[in-house]
Amino acid sequence: MSAFFAIIRRDLLLVFRRKSEVLTILFFFIIVTSLFPLGIGADSGLLRKIAPGIIWVAALLATILGLSRLFISDYADGTLEQMTLSPTPLVLLVGGKITAHWIVCGLPLVLLAPVIGIQFDLNSETLGTLILALLLGTPILSLIGAIGAALTLGVRGGGVLLSLLVLPLYIPVLIFGAGAVFASSVGLDVSGHFSLLAALLVLSLAFAPWATAASIRIAIE
Amino acid sequence: MYSSPRNRLMNWFSFSSPATFYPLAGKLIPLFWVLATLLGVAGLWISFFVAPADAVQGQGYRIIFVHVPASWMSMFIYMVMAAWAAIGLIFNTRLSAMMAQALAPTGALMAFLSLWTGAFWGKPMWGAWWVWDARLTSELILLFLFLGFIALQASIDDVRRADKAGAILALVGIVNVPIIYFSVKWWNTLHQGSSVSMTKAPAMAHTMLWGMLLMALCFWMYSIAIALMRVRVIILERESHSDWVKNLKALQS
Amino acid sequence: MLFTGIGFQLKAGEWLHVRGENGVGKTSLLRLLAGLSKPPEGSVDWSGISIEADPTSYRRELFFLGHRDALKDDLTALENVLIASALDGSAVSQDQALSALCRFGLRGRELLPVSCLSAGQKRRVILARLLLRKATLWILDEPFNALDSRAVELLSSLIAEHLASGGMAVLTSHQAIPLPNAKVLSL
User: Fold this and answer.
1) Whole-angstrom Cα distance, residue C57 to residue C13?
2) Is A78 in contact with C66 (Cβ distance < 8 A)?
3) Where are the domains of chain B?
């Protein structure tokens, strides 16, 4: 278990020494959400309606942008190989890396989203739903995305291929997550959406680390 | 590796080697083409001449006889492909992985055919080439899953790694397909209501079901024939360094 | 297919020198022994049990070093050593880490980011890891590369100590290695 926290510490330490990578992802999130009003028009009624979808799609894209860095530097300098040879179960170390990735890429999105929600004129109750939905949803995105990142390690066309593989798998999270926010904005019940999101989270926690570890071993072979 | 004629029937495992499977596949391919043609002729005949015109949708609905079987086949092929890939991953057999690789393009074709015929059905019915119906949208996502599998295998140079990575992707996909279908259906009922739905197909007359069944079987036979042809090419490519392939080429030239 | 028909046994205190031209498969063989890849036929056994049957115990006793340094450039030498041991589940104290780094001539450089170290110095950090890890079997691929003569001496004496206390090693090297009890495998 201490190895789990050790690797989270390590990854956070590494990010701290190179802050630029994280900030670009956040800027991407902000810029993408700002593009839509510019492309569609400033009709605040329309924007309020499409805001849940836009924010969620931007969150998906920003997460994918950050996924390619999940394993690639460890793969390149040989530390990933050492992890596969460690007596500590690889699943535990992978889980730690995914957790660190979420802290660095997912949590900031959760914190930034309400600011963007205000730009789209969402009311405070909807903003609360948005934060909660992203809080449940972004870990799922990191977990499922990690499988894609491991499968495409060191492969030609990695980043784009990663998007092609992972985006279809993100669709259920998008549907329930954006659906929850939309429902909240029109005053409907959100418990169904949240139960489904929670179920997806449990499912991905159960399967994704194993699939990721298996994919890493295949890539290291 | 060689078994006497007496116990060849019992020795199915000998065919798990690419070298012995290659000639077997070669013999089976014409059989499946014949079956596909017969079933296709019968199916099309029933679809176009025997099944009655629909009270509401007239003659145009007949595209359903291609659309629905294609949808069924695309799902079926994905499951079979994932099963072969899983066997290849667990038992480390090369031929199973080759079968999965051979099936993927046909599965993608079936998904595309389903979408394309869906558009041709939708246009006269609802005036739009595309509707965000639950089944069509799920079919679109299934097409992406097939394309992702093909793209992943094409991008990895090392053949064994490509096999195993593809297998993991296919298995992750298999778990996701019901989830994706459920979520899309849910999304559809939430946002669209019951205005447009391809699941509300015309009430099935007996002959209509027969038409779809025959067409589905035709597509199945076709898929097997094409997959066997493709797997033979894959076998030749992968085993090109081995003696039996070199002998084969020597005989042919 | 690189090689067939290879078999050998290694006992405590013995070491195996894998020799051969470049490209003949030395690295592939070592990776097979470490369990990174599986042989199409045959098996690697540790204490009579296949390493696939109980990979965790095998990995506890194994230290593998490939061509890459397995160091994070953005971390200091000390951090690299401490974190690597924590990840392996056998954390060492800061004092132990510092004295290991000191033994390999890195005193005064422990707190520099590894990117500031020379290739030879980076390899010495790995030697410190090797010392602290206390594994029984060392599989080292070209460990003497990029080492100056002083470091070569340090590594040789380290391996000799290890063998004397009942450890085992599998090495590849272009150089002659002055260690007793050698078994040779020529590919």
Assistant:
1) 20
2) yes
3) 20-252
